[in-house]
Each structure stands twice: as C-alpha cells, then as structure tokens.
Amino acid sequence: MSDKNMKRKTTMTIVSEGLAKRYKKEKRFKMLGLSAILFSLLFLVFLFSSIFLNGYKAFFQTAVQIDVFFDPAVLDVKDPATANYHGLIKTSLRTAFPDIKKRKDKKKLYGIISNGASFTLRDIVLENPSIIGQTLSVWVLADDDIDMLMKSYIDRELPESDRRMNDMQIDWVDTFKAQNRIKFLFNIGFFTNGDSREPESAGILGATIGSMYMLAITLVLAFPIGIGAAIYLEEFAVKNWLTDIIEVNINNLAAVPSIVFGLLGLAVFLNFFQLPRSAPLVGGLVLFLMTLPTIIITSRVALQSVPPSIREAALGVGASKMQAVFHHVLPLAMPGMLTGTIIGMARALGESAPLLMIGMVAFIVDIPSSIADPATALPVQIYLWADSPERAFVERTSAAIMVLLTFLILMNGTAVYLRSKFERRW
Amino acid sequence: MYTKTISIIAATVIGGSVLTTNIATARDYVSIVGSSTVYPFATTVAEQFGKSTKFATPKVESTGSGGGLKLFCSGIGVTHPDISNASRRIKKSEYDKCQANGVKDIIEVKVGYDGIVLANSKKSHPMKLSRRDIFLALAKMVPGTDGKLIDNPNKTWKDINASLPNTKIEVLGPPPTSGTRDAFAELAMEGGAKTFDNMKALRAAKGDAVKPLMAKLGIPENAFNAKGKNVFKRVAHSIREDGAYVEAGENDNLIVQKLEANPNALGIFGFSFLDQNEDKVQGSSIDGHMPTFEAISDGSYPVSRPLFFYVKKAHVAVIPGISGYLAEFTSDKAWGEEGYLADKGMIPMPGAERAKFASDVQNLTPLVLQ
Amino acid sequence: MSNPILTTILLSLISFSYSYGKKFAFTTGSKVGGVHKLHSRPAYHGMLIALWCALPSLFILFVWQFAEPAIISSMVLSSLPDAINTLPPERLGLVLNDIKNLSMGLSFGGQIDPQLLKASEYYLQLQQTGINIKSGAVIILSIIGLLAGFKLLSPSLRARNHVERVVRYFLIGCSLIAIFTTIGIVLSVLFEALRFFQKVSVAEFLFSLTWSPQISIRADQVGASGEFGAVPVFAGTMLISAIAMLVAVPIGLMSAIYLSEYASKRMRATAKPLIEILAGVPTVVYGFFAALVVAPFIRNAGTAMGLEVSSESALAAGLIMGIMIIPFVMSIADDVINAVPQSLRDGSYGLGATKSETVKNVVIPAALPGIVGGILLAVSRAIGETMIVVMAAGLSANLTVNPLQAVTTVTVQIVTLLIGDQEFDSPKTLAAFALGLLLFVVTLSLNILALYIVRKYREEYE
User: Fold this and answer.
1) What number is the ipTM of this complex?
2) Which one of A288, A426, C54, C59 counts the least CB within 10 Å of its CB?
3) DSSP letters of C313-377?
C-alpha cells in the first residue's frame, strides 16, 4: 500500500479494514478465557476420578466363611470374654485344610483370616452364650493380603518369588472361591471403626468424630467472636492507631501460614496452659484462631454491602446506633456472614499442617468420647495412612479422601446455595 | 436481636465452662510418643493390647525420636508421656535432662532390629554393592588418585566399579534429621570408608599421629581433632549434596513409588517397606548379602540398627495399662521369632537378648548411663 | 447437681429475669402514662436485669471451673499420710491421677493401697461437695444479681445505654483477639529463634548460601558439616511460588474475565462454585496427587525429551500449588472487575471498542491495584503452603532457578526439622523456629505491601 492510498482512506475504511482482525482477536481472547475455565474444570474432573478409581474398592471388603466349633473346652461359660478365640479360628482352618502339616505353612494358613476376626467371634459369643458347644458358619474378614488378591492388586502372573503370596496361598483362596465361601461384603467397619494397624479393620469413625469435635469448638468460638469483631470494626470503631493496628493485624493473620498457627498452639496451649496433647480441644482452639480472621473479613464485606441508606433510615426514625446495626443491618448481612463462616469451617476441616505440631499425628483406636480425649482428624488420618507400609492402606487413603471431599462439597454447596438464595443487589 | 446476642454470649460462656470440666479428669490411657520407625510396631502392640484387655488402647504419637525424648524427659506427671520410642539409643544429654527434670528411673527396652535397605525398581537389574561402593557413590569427599580427598567425581555406578551398570548415580534417601540416615551413615558409609588404608589408619590414630594422616588425605588443618576417629567420622558421614543423593522425606511409601517411576534410581528405606512391596522393588545385596529377614536377624546383612523404647518407672504403677502393654510387647507372640511384629517387618532379637530385656522389664531395672 | 442441670436452672433464671424486667417496664410505664414515657423500651429493662443476673454468676462459674480441680487436689493430698505427702510435686501428680482413676472405678489388678482407696472416696466426696457449693453459689449469686437489677428498675432508668455499653465492650473484646493472636505467634517462635541465633549468627542465617543441617545426631559422633544459610531455602520457596503464580495468575485472571464479562448468568452460577471447589480440596490430597501423578509424569515427559528431571522437581509441586491457588486469584479478580462501574465499559463500547479491547484497555487498568494486591496475597499463601511441598518437593537445598531440579521450601524444612530424630536442643530443631519467625516476617511484609498498594491506588468510582 502506498502513502498516497493511505491518505485517501477515510476513517470508516480504516476501521472496517481492521475489523476482521479485531474480531479474530476478540474471538481468540474469548476462547482463552473459556479454556482457562475448562482447564480448571478438567483438572477437577481428573483429580476426582483418579481418587475415585483408586479408592472405591475400599468400600468393599473380602470376607471368608469358616465353620467354627465353639469348643466348650476353650470357652469358659462363666467368662467367655477372655477365651482364646484365635485358637478357635486356627482349629477351624486346620480342619478345613487337614493336609497342611509344616509349621511355616500353617502360619501362612492362619494368616488368611484377619487378626480382628477373633474379636468378631468374641462378640458373637458374648451376644449369645448359648451357642457354646455348637458349630456355626461364620463370615469373618479376610487378611488384607487376601483382600488385595481378590481385588486383583496382586498380579497372579508374576513369578512366585516376586509375589507377596505364594502359589499355595492362592490355591487356598481358589478353594474358598470354588466353595463359594469367599465374597465381598460392604465395608461397614470402615465407617464404624477407629484406626487400626490391620487395614481390613481400619475405619474413619474416630477421625471423623475428632474432626467434628474440633469443628464444633471452632464454630462456637469463631462465629460469635468473628461477627462481633466485624461489627465493631465496621460500624463502631473510631479511626485511631489502635483500630488501624487491629485492621492490619487481621488482614495479616488471614495470610499467615497455617503451620505457624501450629507453632502457636504448641507454645501457648500445650506448653503454657498445659492442655492435654492430641485433644480436639486444642485442635479446635488452633483452628479457631486460624479461621477467625477469614470470618471477620468476610463478615465485614457482608456488612459493607448493606447500603448506608438502611442505617440512615433507622437512625432517622430515632434508633440508636446499636439498634440500627442489630435490628436492621445485621439481619441483612447475615447470609453473607453465614457463607463466609461455612467456607472458613470447610477450610478448617481440611487443614492438617497445624495439627502436625500439636500431637494429633497419633495412632488412636478408641473413638473419642469428649473433647479432652485423644483424637485425630480426617486429614491427619489420611496423612498417616499414606505413610503405612501395608499396601491395602493405599485404597483406604483414597476412600478417606473421598469421605472428606464429600463433607467439604456439602459444606461448600450449602454456602453456594445460601449465597444464591439470599444474595441481594441494592 | 439483643436477645440473640445475649443468648449467644451465654451459650459461649456456658459452653466454655462445660468444656473445661472434662480436662480435670484423670488420664486412663498410656501415652506413647517417639520415632516414626518404631511407630508401626508400637501401634500394632497397642492395638492388640487395647482390644484384648479392658484397658483403653494406648495412644501412640509419631513425633520423631528427638521430639519424643524431649516430651518424655520434660517431667513426671500425667501431662507427660509414659513411653518414648526411639530408633537410636538415648543420648547422654537427653538422659541428663531427664534426670534434671525428675525423670529418675528409666527402663530401656530394646525391641528388635530394623534393616536399612538399598532398593531399586524391579524393572531394572538387581544391584550387587559393597559398602566401599556405597561410600564411593555417596560420600561428599572421596580419596582421589593421589590419595588426597577430593569432591566426589563419580557420576555413574560404572565409574565406581566396572561390574556395575552404566547408569547415573541417583539415590533417594532420608534427610539429615532422620535416624535412618544417621544409622545408614554409620553402618554403610563408615564401613565403606574403612576399606581405604589411610582412612582406617586415621580412625585408629590419636593425638600427634592424626596430623600427618590428615595431611596425607588432604584434610584442612581446621578440622583437626585429637581423636582421629572424630575426623574420620566427619569425612565418612558427609553425604554429597550435588544432586546424586536426593533427600526425599520420611514417607517411605512415596520413595517406593518414586522408584517405580524411575527405574534408574535407588532408594534407602526400612526393611518393612521392602517386605510389603516385593513385587515393585528389589533389595540390593550389600557385601554379598541380600536384605532378607534371615540375613538381617543373624547379623550377616551389615546395615541394620536396633530399635528401642524407654519407660518411666514412676508411671508404671500409676497409669493404668503400662505394665500390661509392656507385658504384651515383651511376650513371644509379639516380639518372638514367629510373633506378629515379625509379620509387620521388625527383625526380632536373638532369644537370649529377648530374655534379658524381658527380665529388665519384669524387674523394672533402670538404665544407668555414664 | 450436674453441669447441664445447673446450666438449665441458670438459663431459666436469666430468661425469667428478662421477662420480669420487661413486664415491670410495661406496668410502670402504664402507671406513668404509657410505655413511651420510659427512657428505654421495655425489652431493654428486661435485658439489663438478665445481664445483672447472668454476668456475675457466669463469671463465678467460669472461675470455679478453673479453680476447683486445684483446690480439691490439694485437699485430697493433704489428707494423705505424710509418707506420701512429702513426695516431690510431680510424684504427687501421679498419685493424684491414681486416686482419680480409682474414684472412677478404674483399677488395674494388683493390690490397691487402702490409703489410696480411702483418698479416692474422699475425692469423690469432695467432688460432690464442690458441685453442691458451686451450684449453690452460682444460683444464689444469680438471684442476688437479679434482685440488684430489680432495685435499679425505674421509669427513668437508662437501660438501653447500660445494655449497649456491655454489648460494646463485648464487641471490642472480640476484635482484640486478633492482636493477642499475633503477640502469641511472635512470642511462641521468638524465644526458640533467639536460642538458635546464639548458636548460629544472624548474618550467617540470612546471607550464607549453604543450607546443610548435617549435624550429628548422637553425642559420640562428630557431625559432618552443619550450615544454616537460609538463602537456598528461601530461593527454593520463591521458585516454587513463582511457578505456582505463573499457573494461577493467567488462568485465574482469564477465568475471572470470562466469567464476569462473557459468561451467561447460568454458566457463571455453575462454573464459579465448581472452580471454587478446587480451593476447598484439602492440601494433603493435592500433595498426594503432585507426588504420585504429576511428578512421575513430568519426569517421564522430560526424560523423553532428553532433559534431566529430578523426581521431586520444583515444577510438579509448583504446578499443583498453582492449581490450588487459581480459585483464590479468580475470586479476588472477579470481585475487583465487578467493582469497575459499567459506565466505564459503556464509554469504551461507545467509542467502538470490542469487548476484549475494553477489558484490556479499560477494565484491567482500572482494576489493577486490586488485582495486584490480590496476587500478593496469593503469593503469601503460596509461600506458606505446607502439605503439598512436604509430600511433593524435595529436601535438598539447591540454589537454582531450574524448575526441573529439586528444591526445598521453608515450610518443608520446618516440618522435617521438628519431627526429626535429632536431639531436641540441637541447632537443627531450633532452626525450625528461626525459619518460622522469618516466614512470619516475610508474609507480614508482603501483606502490608499488598494492603498499601490496594489503599493507595484504589480508584473510587462513587
């Protein structure tokens, strides 16, 4: 294009000549935005499906049916609680496979059944002592190795020396299979048991209760105090150095790494106040301090979004400032505050770093019955299981993650619902 | 709305005060802290004990040996733990701290051994190493051609020993804060360093004999110590930091998985993880011995270390369940050759040693550390 | 009387005083010519009495809960024979635990010392007395408070002002907790950090280029080198955070722009909460994913291209951390973009600009201070993130900018140093606190900077 041509062009032609290019740019920009969103969503789907595929099998557990003779010679009718139930299982396995003679092989044979099975038998007897002397077919949990084999995590094709199970053990399992004495049961224990070193009897109830206790403490403290602080700072505080410090402080605390709160909990609650280690009480207090700034900030935003006209109208008809805030502004800001609180709670539920510092990385079998009992939390349980040598804990880790994610999605869903239902544009 | 506020205040305060009541209750469970290496075994015993008796299941925390002994030694009383697990012996300074804080009588119980293995993925070839190879591969400084110590020049395994494969040296192992790393340095690296004559001489040297040896090895004067052994250790324990040794954290499962993803790498971890993952990783033989259960328990496999726990005598009679837990741990069905701890990957002690520690526990014989 | 019963009685007393005060106000009000003649509305009279009734008794209840165990313990102990009583205090604590366990019916075989058994009965008895006294004191006090409140009631009582003052003190108290938290944090890391600085100089910690805490673990060993230069640790943190920001900022920003400028209402309502789920996924889960899925993938891809990739490359941890932060950047950017008034956009459209030109030339410049502030906050979140890096990043303190190499971060070091096997007052453990302090200071300055930028450059459009 020569200079002459350029000069003769009107603005309109320049514009229309560039239009195609600009529209293309526009389209590209839009696609960029869309792909950014799609990227996040795809990742979400990928993450969730990989967790699901890893873990869904943990909701089913291999059980084996064995014929147990409740031998009166072993079981004392007067005190059946302390009998040698493991012996009963051994006897019944020996009867089922009478040609196993070598000591080592016998040990492998006994290993088919979970260590926890003797407690199952004990419970059966305690519930109904009259069965002593009878033979009963009982479904008991299989050992985690059998479970792994049944779930085809153990490759039968590998040479025997490379496998965790030898050919003999696989034969036993196949025998059970042929007799229809082995099957998958829904893994109730996963939801009703505390932690265990035997993967087949490990459950998340203890960790879940621990998490719930902590959340309850966090909520009871953080909700009123957070809202109180937000109201004061937003509605009443006069601008001076003190309120300035408080403001900077709160904003800063919201971004302080959670692990630093763990160090605080260690120094203040454990060492200074001598509160018990590993207790949900301490965990709840730490999480309270951690979530408080978030709740204050979101509550302040909610208060800010209430237009000044509401306050002015209330003051205009003679309400005191306190009345204007509590009777008119607060109810309008409440949905926003609730949303912020729920999101803060969800963050507290998923948090594990500060809990590492206050002794909650612990093996706790008994279900906690008060906030001072030792307990662990769901994310910490996940962390612990991930570190266990037993292979069967891998799927349990994923299953526990699924449970935790379900809680989190429920909480976030409630927040989204509240927000969309009560969101008001002024 | 005020009513709501006031009721919230009331609920908080009352809730708070109700919450505080429970803290005053007594501790009715055993509290155990300490090493993450002993954790899998201690928890197994704790669970067996808790489920088969009417006592509450002991609480086992994984705090690391140092953190555990710190808590353990901070005093006597319900707020302090009763038992501390350790993957190394208690240090004199820690023992003194215990004494100073009134924790006078401590019972030491050795529970068994943990083999430390070097393993790689099943997808690649098994490695046959000697401790000298390990030292040459991982030490920060190795003797060069003129006998003086130089920065480790070895890039591939073949550089060290012509019989080894021509792959890059890459070893995933625990960080310097770990007892596993410490034991590995002491058993494998020192063992390898000793195979060099000058280093061996340095280890044995004392006083004036140290300096000429240091000069021979090219160690700077400021590293001088009257005990040649200390200078020797300083060299032998230094692990290279140029990327050949990757500090990979304490999660041994992750190391196993990383090895699977990276067939050329070797990993250092506890025997129980090798035991559980036989289909994925294979142990390397060291000085001709494969890391098997038998070889570790008879001592022919060179890299294994003892595991301990420590008990406060003053707590034994007071906290319900301690003596029961001790009895369970020291029973043959737990720590014996056929016991359930062996199933979990712990290497049992020989019968005589077991009997000795079992009687220590029975009589509550306190440890005397000079 | 158990705690719940006491609480119920107390609550009913409080609600009674409230309704009584209210009723009183109504009756006196009608006597003086209508409720509107009173200074405060009747409800305030009720509330004032309720406060009078509640606060003193709750205070006593609270103090009692803390004091009771100590008092009872000392009484039980003094009842014991001298042989036990002269034991050192920590032993006494154990004896007391024994007594408490006995009183709860927990014995553990063997013979029970009859003296202890007696003491445990005494303990139970004392506990019962304690509960009785407590209940009595609390109820009597609340009634006294109630009566004192009644005395005050009069038509001219400025009940509202009194109540409002109490509420105001409560609100101030709430907002002061943040300050106490900060003080607590500083104090809890400061002392240990100072002990560390006695062993390692501040200058070495801040400026030395080697981090290698290879100090011996046992006394009979002389350790290898132990160097505590925090520079590589911080450089590693910065590298991982930078990678995370490279992922999070463009994706988060573009998502926010698309959602606020292009997306239909329905898409916005579904996509935004879905993406926000990413922020709710526990970091432990991300850590797993980074270590087991992303890191091997990057390694394999890198090796296929002939690159040398460490198995715990900074890239893997950084990428996943970036994804975690996307929603954070997105919501902040979304808020700021929405705050840009429509009139600005309309002006730009009026000049013939396309949507993307408007966004690039008008909306983003107007929203920039808010976006930058938000990004700084996101950076401080990335720096402080712990679990992802603990599981996916390495521990080797390499001073490098190569994202394919392993680096370490401050939080990883804190965790490994604190749960290690080393002796507890070695510089290794103490270094964790020094790092914690430094981390706190760094995030604090970042946040203050972010606040400053937002405040200084914020455009007010109203």
Assistant:
1) 0.82
2) A426
3) -HHHHHHHHHHHHHHHHHHHHHHHHHHS-HHHHHHHHHTT--HHHHIIIIIHHHHHHHHHHHHHH
